[in-house]
């Protein structure tokens, strides 16, 4: 299945692009996508997953306009043509 992944804020700079098309086997979950992205963009690995391969708790994830928590990433099935937007935490004041 093909997905579109959009990168926001400093994650865009870490990956070096605003978005990309990603190919995943059918039946993969959101955490599978995050691990594939971590392997593809190894310099930005810590933005996507923890050392144990779980979704980074601070990562803000949106799948087709619906927010998904890091805890739900393993049980969130992805489908062809989904749009996944990834936004790292933003601090300021």
Could you list some keywords that capture this structure?
93 residues, alpha+beta, Ubiquitin-like (UB roll), five-stranded mixed sheet, 3 helices, globular
Strand order in the largest sheet: 2-1-5-3-4
CATH architecture: Roll
Question: What's the overall geometry?
Answer: globular
What is the assigned CATH homologous superfamily?
A: Beta-grasp domain
Strand content bin = 15-25%
- Overall pLDDT confidence: 94
Rounded to the nearest angstrom, the distance between the terminal CA atoms is: 41 Å
What does this entry show, briefly?
The protein contains three helices and five strands; from the N terminus they run βαβααβββ.
Give a verbal description of the structure.
The chain is α+β, with helices and mostly antiparallel strands. It has a single domain, classed as Ubiquitin-like (UB roll) (Roll). 24% of the residues lie in helices and 25% in strands. It is built from 3 helices and 5 strands. The protein has a 5-stranded mixed β-sheet. The protein is globular, with a radius of gyration of 12 Å. It starts with a strand and ends in a 6-residue tail after the last strand. The model has no long low-confidence stretch (mean pLDDT 94).
């Amino acid at each position: 299945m093909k997905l579109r992944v959009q990168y926001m804020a400093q994650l865009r700079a870490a990956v070096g692009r605003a978005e990309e098309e990603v190919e995943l086997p059918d039946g993969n979950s959101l955490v599978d996508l995050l691990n594939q992205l971590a392997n593809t963009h190894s310099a930005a690995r810590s933005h996507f997953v923890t050392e144990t391969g779980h979704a980074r708790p601070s990562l803000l994830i949106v799948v087709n306009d619906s927010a998904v928590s890091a805890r739900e990433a393993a049980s969130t099935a992805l489908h062809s043509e989904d749009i996944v937007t990834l936004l790292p935490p933003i601090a300021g004041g």
